[in-house]
Design a protein that fits this description.
Blueprint: E1 7-13, E2 20-25, H1 30-40, E3 49-53, E4 74-79, H2 81-91, H3 97-110, H4 114-122, H5 125-135, H6 140-154, H7 166-177, H8 183-196, H9 201-210, H10 213-220, H11 225-241, H12 244-256, H13 259-268, H14 276-290, H15 294-297, H16 306-319, H17 333-347, H18 366-378, H19 380-391, H20 401-415, H21 439-457, H22 465-480, H23 487-496, H24 499-517, H25 519-546, E5 548-552, E6 561-567, E7 573-579, E8 593-596, H26 621-633, H27 641-658
Helix pairs in contact: 2-3, 2-4, 3-6, 5-6, 5-7, 6-8, 7-8, 8-11, 10-11, 11-14, 16-18, 18-19, 18-20, 18-21, 20-21, 20-22, 21-22, 21-23, 25-26, 25-27
Length: about 700
Amino acid sequence: MPPPKDVVKIAIQMVGAIPQLIELQQSKPLAAVLKDVCDAWSLPNAERYALQYADGRQTYITELNRGEIKNGSILRLTTSPDQEAERLYSGIQSNNVDVKTDSLKKLASLSQDVTFAQEFINRNGLKLIFYIVEEGNDAGEILAHTLKAFMELMEHDFVSWETLSAAFIKKIVSYVNMNAMDASVQQLSMSILENMVPSSRVLFELVKKEVTVDRLLTHLQVMNTQLQLKAMALLIALLLAATDAERRDMMEYLREKNIRQFIHKNIIHSSEPLGDEMAHYLYVLQSVSLNLHERRMRTSMDPYSQEQRELLQSLRQAAFESESDAPAGTFSTERRRSLCAKEFRKLGFMNNSNPAEDLRRAPPGLLALDNMVYFSRHTPSAYSRFVLENSSREDKHECPFARSSIQLTLILCEILHVGEPCSETAQAFYPMFFGQDHFFEELFCICIQLVNKTWKEMRATQEDFDKVLQVVREQITRTLSLKPTSLELFKTRVNALNYSEILKLRQTERLHQEETLAVPVLELRERLKPELLELIRQQRLLRLCEGTLFRKVSSRRRQDKLWYCRLSPNHKVLHYGDVEEGVQSPPIESLTEKIPVADMKALLVGKECPHMKEKSSGKQNKFCLWTDGLNVLLGKEMTSERTQTDLDVLLSMELKLRLLDLENISIPDNPPPVPKPPSNLNFCYDFSHAEQ
């Protein structure tokens, strides 16, 4: 007979004693359970003891988390959190260096547990940590353990970052600014400042003032990748917390210091592989930089602005040696106005009498004007060739420069997500972005010439304008998906992807689509699905058995801890546990935490999951594989988009193999009619009369 649901069978260990195997009644008060355990070992003062997991993070068992105890769990009888907090509180004040060091090391470890952390903080333990840092008498290992313990204690949000003293903050800042300082201390110090920055405006201004951008750039250029990573994290935190004006100034200063070139050469193209965290920070840096264009993108042209009118006139003057620019007495005002309108029409403005009206739409607003002016000033020969070439064509075949530029700017803003907030986990950055100053404007210069090239290839007229720009959008997105490492490589590839190539790709995709829409093929797809779905299920389970390395993401988005999880070969138990940086595939025996598959009831993802704090819709393949695999273990359908993608690929391959013999043969929608049976079967051979 199975045990009641509120009873779990567990083992309890204690140093120097024979383990106890008990049935833990979850309805029984934890104090009473501890009393029984202590009595069995003849231990007095049960209130001085507590239970904690013997493996993994060794979390203390409380009334709040006891429901997480599973059948087969191994617990350990240990000193209660309040007793341990009292002991370490005394230990870190010891004059014995070894005792103090060991106490701080243990404190850093135990502070990950919320129960212990609360007990230590309630004893005013943070005051002791502040004292160690502020006095500045300790360094090296003692200081590193102290800062680590502080970080873990602050992680639980019992204490506000705004309560930190000026002396404490000054010391942390000094560790970052010192040249001769232990690398681990500098890493922890930058992590502390990174968490301080978004907490309040006052702390942001303090850190920004005390830790200069130059100092962070110095840390970025070291060989220690972890120190480099923490410096980048602090820089990104400062950028995200800054006002628009401050962010603009910081980005301009970084540009002057050639930060992009350094990142492109020494981080992106480093011999060391790029980690997930650094990839995310580079994505954020790219996004922040591109979003500097948002203000101009959302600002309409003001026809009364002298500066903006002069920019507009400069486009006309750069393209034509105009008669309208002759001395004032040469032509009448009406004649001069007529000549200007004619030249603006040749430039491709729809409202040639008042071209400012074309730029009233925002987005793309003034950003389109900026791009046109940049193109005319930095590539004047290409600009003149574009305008004059189209001025000499027949009216119906001319490619309108201004109209195309306005629409292209809008397309680039949409593709590059200008004006959109940064995702908290995205890692998709373009390597070529960091190899080029004025990236957006230079990309525009390449793509506006692509518009003219594609226009001629399509033999387009004004009525084909939207169709041409749709092809150009496709050319750009397809090329960007290849992640070219430089703008030159982008230019080469996007120009190679001409209109005829786009038509071939579209035709191929359309043929694939039409093939799957034929009724007999649809029926064949349905017959193949069960077999291929089973193949995907087996692949998912194999992937779970191989295991995956995950990063822990806390409420403050810290991602510096790792844990590994894998499924046992018999598919009955999930093994998991904390691992160190650099460990790729730990043996299953080293993963001490276990979850029996039989105890799993349901899988919650997205908004349904109470622990899920991620708001972005970024997809990561490893999570899709795990959600699929867990659903297979639960006997449920695989619901991820990755499953559908894999199924489509396998079905497409299988269908192509099955239909090879039918190439160039049209498949009818309906099967041929089955003829009526013959009136007699006399034509059949009778084997009973075979010769003997």
